[in-house]
Amino acid sequence: GENVEQHPSTLSVQEGDSAVIKCTYSDSASNYFPWYKQELGKGPQLIIDIRSNVGEKKDQRIAVTLNKTAKHFSLHITETQPEDSAVYFCAASGLNDMRFGAGTRLTVKP
Amino acid sequence: DAGVIQSPRHEVTEMGQEVTLRCKPISGHNSLFWYRQTMMRGLELLIYFNNNVPIDDSGMPEDRFSAKMPNASFSTLKIQPSEPRDSAVYFCASSFYPRDRGDGYTFGSGTRLTVV
């Protein structure tokens, strides 16, 4: 089955700086890669996703890149704000499974 | 839409007791998932329903766990008897598409279960 690794496990940045979270996956059949943001006491919320036929996708301050050959994808957050502080999860989905990374706790210091 | 609704938000129970977690998916969503989240194991899929039918229950830890979806708007996850190692946050998620379509899921706010 699919195995997703996520790094780093914790990330602390200054407000206004950029944050990058990286994930790798093992199953070459995976074709859908969502990112979720989980705030304290809440469920994960989908913030952006990308399919395998696309290399990059942007939504305001958030972007995701995908390298299918290397089997890795990344989340980029620019101009970080304190409200970006949360746990972020990557996931990889194929025919029969969606597997989640272990999560990255992002702290944005004002 | 009110989103995926889970109840209760918190549950504290004694070891050996039966626990029932409830979920109301988003109206019109045909897929429903139960996940368990712990620090050690992260987010784990327990069971996946499509059109109210259990499709994949390979993640259900053992016979103490059971899940039902009697109709399109309601699902339960039952643990009987509960054990301290079942303590976790349990999430229900729903999606319009079947799992192999791979679209993002909408998660509920979760039920934090503590078994003492």
Summarize the structure.
The complex is a heterodimer of chains A (110) and B (116). With 110 residues, chain A is mostly beta strands. Chain A contains no helices and eleven strands.
Describe what this molecule looks like in 3D.
The complex is a heterodimer of chains A (110) and B (116). Chain A is 0% helix and 57% strand. With 110 residues, chain A is mostly beta strands. In chain A, the strands form 2 sheets. In chain A, strands 2, 4, 5, 9, 10 and 11 form a 6-stranded mixed sheet that branches. In chain A, strands 1-3-8-7-6 form a 5-stranded antiparallel sheet, with no helix packed on it. In chain A, a hairpin with a 4-residue loop joins strand 9 and strand 10. Chain A starts with a strand and ends with a strand. Chain B has 116 residues and is mainly β. Chain B has no helices and 11 strands. In chain B, strands 2, 4, 5, 6, 9, 10 and 11 form a 7-stranded mixed sheet that branches. In chain B, strands 1-3-8-7 form a 4-stranded antiparallel sheet, with no helix packed on it. Chain B is globular, with a radius of gyration of 13 Å. The relative contact order of chain B is 0.33. The model of chain B has no long low-confidence stretch (mean pLDDT 95). Classes of the chains: A mainly beta (110), B mainly beta (116). Chains A and B meet through strand 4 and strand 5 of A and strand 5 and strand 10 of B.
Which descriptors apply to this entry?
heterodimer, A: 110 residues, mainly beta, six-stranded mixed sheet, five-stranded antiparallel sheet, globular, B: 116 residues, seven-stranded mixed sheet, four-stranded antiparallel sheet, 11 strands, 0% helix, 53% strand
